[in-house]
Amino acid sequence: MRIDVLTIFPSFFDVLEVSLLGKARGAGLLDVRVHDLRDWTHDRHRTVDDTPYGGGAGMVMKPEPWGEALDAVTEGSERPVIVFPSPAGEVFSQRTARALVETDHLVFGCGRYEGIDERVFAYAATLGEVRLMSLGDYVLNGGEVAAMAMIEAVGRLIPGVVGNPESLVEESHEDGLLEYPSYTKPSSWRGYEVPPILLSGNHGAIADWRRAQQIVRTRERRPDLMPGE
Ligand SMILES: COc1ccc2nc(C(=O)O)sc2c1
After folding, report:
1. Model pLDDT for residues 56-76, shown as the tens digit of each residue
2. Per the database record, which ranges form the tRNA methyltransferase TRMD/TRM10-type domain (predicted)?
3. In testing the pocket of ligand 1, which one of 6, 7, 8, 86 has its CB within 8 Å of the most ligand atoms?
4. Ligand 1: which atom is nearest the Cα of residue 61?
């Protein structure tokens, strides 16, 4: 999978060098290219924003640099998916990550200021599939944090990136429920005991207990995820 990131803060993504995804890049499983949007400006101040038509507070990102940048990073790409992190977008979920990991070429366009000139999204749709996505019902200062989270959520699903693929299966949201509680040695710690069932060696009973814990936790913490409730 190839991922291109367009941002005015490219150093923000330096962390991708050291994380699990850094190893994935080194192993050739993931090709992440981070670009400074200002490289597609042509004035001395490398201007990427201007005042909004119709008035209002803040600044809007100019369409010209975005158009040239999107042309450059999608050149030769058959059908990229172009994700614009946006508080006005669909909410990103594990299901979204599962769908996006099947994509050969992902482009993340990180907005700042009050957002990107709307015409950029229309133009981008001539280059690929456009998805505006939010991490949730709150607002960040820009798209970089959201893009980083989405890149990690998608990147870790690429076969070979996470050491033991089994560990992906029993995670929260993978089966629609929150994950069960985990414990390790010592079995007794500051008066807190590991649930005895987990020490029983009865794998069938342990699986049943874990499923029951998932249901209890999901009902308590995320009733909206409960199937049929
Ligand atoms: C201007 O670009 C932005 C601004 C806020 C923001 N908030 C997001 C979120 O997912 O909450 S994505 C995003 C992009």
Report:
1. 999 999 999 999 999 999 999
2. 1-226
3. 86
4. 1
Residue nearest to atom 3 of ligand 1 (CA): 142
- The string of pLDDT tens digits covering residues 147-204 is 999 999 999 999 999 877 677 766 778 788 999 999 999 999 999 999 999 999 999 9
150 Cα: distance to centroid of ligand 1 (angstroms) = 12
pLDDT at 162: 85
Note the pLDDT tens digit of each residue in 28-55. 999 999 999 999 999 999 999 999 999 9
Which residues, other chains included, contact 165 with Cβ-Cβ below 8 Å and sequence gap of 6+?
Answer: 159
Provide the whole-model pTM: 0.93
